């Protein structure tokens, strides 16, 4: 049976100032701190059962360590290790527990230099008793500081100076499917929006115009419930002096957005609402052309935003 | 390769008065009429690309013809046909086009008598030009009569006098997985909430207390965007004199609900908002016990509701 | 110049257990504690600039001390004192500061026995610096425990065994105007919905079927932003085991509601969303008859609810 | 008794192409056409009982005829006529019915040249039977083309090259009160936000930097229910190719906004949600300074926007 990636699991980020970044991610944005070990803090959103969907490690400078994907079954780890090795990709095994709460895993870099991790096992720790919901299907009764805390991880946006090649590599080697794509007026590909699980876009792979630009992560998107929650998210950022880099609705994915950026690391969280889900085994990719609309944003605009390179 | 069910596709319903039922489904609730042939009208929700997720056929009395499930690939049809035949289940092949917009299919009844259909191919017709969205990833620009028209099919609720047996049959023979379950105080199973795609509950299988009660469908649920949309849906029903049978939030699934019932057929649509999605290949079913909460409804109540038997 | 009542100011409530009631009002519902003196705690909603809109005093049993109304100008206090005295109503002057944060006031009982207060001056203390909004037109940056904390006081619902007489008294003597009314099928008045400011209903005056029933307060309503906030309010109550007595939308006033009740005092807060505002100097009262609709509630239902008598 | 303005009533606009403008105001934005006579079309929002809150007259070019304010009582018309005449302001009486659905009125220009109308009587015609709500306190059951049709008129924004003088004139002569104000870093006044009824901002009076700029109207704002409705409003505009000039939230007034502009006349409607209401007879104006915040917009931005001069 062919090995299979099931869905986006987490991102492992590095920051030059762990305390400042924790202020951003926990006090401002609303993540839950689940565990802390060896200079790494493991975070999850209040609607996630899994041990973490984001980790922060203190480092010399801001960076990305890896993006983690969960496989469909335990056997897929060895399956992918064998397969990638056969393709000339250097694969490293990570012992269970090295990344806290997680079983064994493999790591490798795409030809573009984006480091990826595949894992299957992940703990699902209970919320602390005083925070636990009375609903068995909900981990936390309430968020802590920020009522519009992200609900669950949605997608990553990665940049590369040959983004199309990266997107094609993900499809060919990891079995991702294209959900949408966007071509510039000259026919060149600007972005390819791919999914492992086929239900939602999980990685936006965006063209960096500058040749030789390093492999980078632009933002990690988490779902919130509504457009009104985006206004509330913006409130929570503005009251704390956190910079926001855009507010509106994408045409691609139809997702509504509010971007918030950690001032010390430039790591960016997209609060994302709406969009659509795909329950179609024969989905035909939505192929946008620049001339379809005046603006890639259906409403509002994206202002700025910073890529953070892989470390 | 084992045959696989991918997700819930549609329900085929019968009504004693097609025009009156179309008033309910199209004018009041907000479905789009896609096609009409041989006394059957094919409907879809305005956010669905597929040809239909609900069909209505005039008949002597209200009834359910079948519930349709899409397979993961074309080969799964013959795979399931062989397998079910081997299990002693009577399988009928349906020619492509017999159900409009659809490829060939198989039909069979579960031991409980719930008639099911499996299909793979389904057309994705464009919306009429004047109704088409400028967004390539959205079929219709707007709904017609009802601004809170359902967005997409979410789940069915079926009743049986041995619901646990039916749920187990779906899991064992069609590969469904249990997402949640609910046991009465005496330990008996009240409901099992299963999914083909593993992302959301697709069938709620509920115990009918009366022995010998016929296999039945209680309602079909469609997604809307928010709790506010449920208030707007209730508005749309009340202004038209359409009966509603409950308003609130389930604890199971965390779905918020407003039920609306076609007066001439008792076929019921649940407007459903919120809830949660599962992106976890190792999901452990949520096992509710009656003593967990005072009420199965977290907020509000369900009042009445009518089962419609299979025809 | 005739004295004039400007708008609803506050309610002064008594509880047999101040700590338990503060858990309800502050930890669960989300009021801000502004001051505490002589056994009375002064609360306001996080969107109110005024010193308090609700006060709680420990007493032998739950009760209502008075409902406070702000006059249009300082002179209206003496104006009403003279006028009411001339009408044979016993008027008591309250010194400035006796009710904390407030200037001098007068108190009196309506013939039905509902004790009222009129005041003009009220302090507008800043929020603590660390809680203050960066927006000059918003007192608090965020709520504390409950993200759906009420925004501002909206109305009171009082009961009497001759409610029509009470409503007429309020109109004739205090200048209230009728915004809506509701008559039973036999022509008897069930409720009269009156306003001092003429923009929104400020007092619902409801008929108690039992002759001799004491003058009572059923609930105090506070505004929240949306129907989705009502679902969130219900969440906050359910997670804390706070009883709720209804969820839905009234036809009268069009207000959407979720009721929450303090278990130790039965004092009830209505979270209220939607409704409409009147900017019409010639508003003609909306006169409902029982036969207009099947149910006084447009959506959902009210379940239970407790009157708390004047002390 | 001093004459008194009660609240904002309507705006009378001129357009070079009535049919195109009606497409914008009725088909796109969602106004109800109430009546048409002598080249003028009278419109109201679906939650307004009054005959009209906006009128459109075909003219050589786009322009503003007047802004209409309702007085508190019929006597205030003569009261203001006498008073303004005494102040050297030229007052014209308009016969009842000259503006359809309306009683007699007076018109005059402020010293800045903004033509105003005062009226008291206005008809409140029923909605057509097939459109009428079953709720007695709601005119229309549903909107026609646009589900996010504005609910009711909220405020106007007028521009002048001496805006402070205009605001002060409105306060001194018509009894308006200042609710908020905004000063530039050099201490000069940018905007004064005034109200006749004292409950909400009804006129934003904005400084035009260019000396000699003609008196103008920038936009008319109508209330919608929520931030989500603003996204839906933007959808309705984008799908019809209607230009929008901004999306986000003001700091002043806390109003959330989406601007839509009639392409043939540049008349602009602000869909406005949220904000706050004042029920305080002693409200102290909120005095903003440019240095309080980085941007006058709390979230998002205003892009463009066009002033339309008085005709």
What does this structure look like?
Four copies of one chain form a homotetramer. The model of chain A has no long low-confidence stretch (mean pLDDT 95). With 311 residues, the first copy, chain A, is an alpha+beta fold. In chain A, a hairpin with a 6-residue loop joins strand 15 and strand 16. The first copy, chain A, has four helices and 19 strands. Chain A is globular, with a radius of gyration of 19 Å. At the C-D interface, strand 1 and strand 17 of C face strand 1 and strand 17 of D.
Residue runs with pLDDT of under 50 for 5 or more positions of chain A: none
Proportion of residues in helical segments of chain A = 10-25%
What form of chain A results from the Cα inertia axes?
A: globular
So how many helices of chain A? 4
Taken as a percent bin, the fraction of beta residues of chain A is: 35-45%
Specify the oligomeric state.
Answer: homotetramer
- Look at the structure and give the mean pLDDT of chain A: 95
How is the biggest beta sheet of chain A arranged?
11 strands, mixed
């Amino acid at each position: 049976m062919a090995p299979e990636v099931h869905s986006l699991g987490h991102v492992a980020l590095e920051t030059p100032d762990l305390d400042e970044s924790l202020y951003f991610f926990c006090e401002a944005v609303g993540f839950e701190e689940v565990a802390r070990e060896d200079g790494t803090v493991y975070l999850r959103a209040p609607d996630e059962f899994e041990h973490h969907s984001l980790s922060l490690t203190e480092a010399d400078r801001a960076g990305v360590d890896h993006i983690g994907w969960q496989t469909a079954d335990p056997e897929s780890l060895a399956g992918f290790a064998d397969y990638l090795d056969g393709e000339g990709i250097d694969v490293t095994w990570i012992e269970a527990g090295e990344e806290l709460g997680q079983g064994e895993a493999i790591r490798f870099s795409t030809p573009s230099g984006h480091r990826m991790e595949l894992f299957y096992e992940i703990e699902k720790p209970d919320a602390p008793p005083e925070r636990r919901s009375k609903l068995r299907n909900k981990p936390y009764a309430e968020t802590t500081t920020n009522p519009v805390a992200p609900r669950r991880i949605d997608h990553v946006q990665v940049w590369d100076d040959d983004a199309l090649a990266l997107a094609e590599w993900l499809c060919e080697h990891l079995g991702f499917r294209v959900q949408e794509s966007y071509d510039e007026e000259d026919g060149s590909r600007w972005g390819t929006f791919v999914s492992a699980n086929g239900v939602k876009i999980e990685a936006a792979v965006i063209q960096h115009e500058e040749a030789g630009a390093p492999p980078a992560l632009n933002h990690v998107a988490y779902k919130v419930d509504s457009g009104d929650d985006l206004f509330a998210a913006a409130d929570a950022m503005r009251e704390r002096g956190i910079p926001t880099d855009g507010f509106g609705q994408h045409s691609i994915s139809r997702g509504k957005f509010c971007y918030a950026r950690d001032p010390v690391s430039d790591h960016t969280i997209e609060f994302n609402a709406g969009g659509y889900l795909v329950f179609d085994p024969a989905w035909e990719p939505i192929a946008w052309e620049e001339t379809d609309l005046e603006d890639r944003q259906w409403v509002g605009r994206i202002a700025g935003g910073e890529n953070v390179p892989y470390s």
